[in-house]
Amino acid sequence: MTRLMIEDITQQIETGLLKPGDKLPSRAELGRRYEVSGMVVHGAVQWLKAVGLVEGVPGVGVFVAHRR
Predict the structure, then answer these.
(1) 28: which strand partners?
(2) In this structure, what CATH number is given to the domain that contains residue 47?
């Protein structure tokens, strides 16, 4: 399920459905949407951060990164 979540969010970013600066849903909402645990959501978000697709703002949320 982690792979499905990562692929889906990546596709939304690449197709422009999610644009730079857009805020991702909360981790709780992502967990409900993809029917996965909070640990799975955390791992997927960490992977998306590591590859530069999203960036976190402490206390605010996770946003689609502005590509350079």
Answers:
(1) none
(2) 1.10.10.10
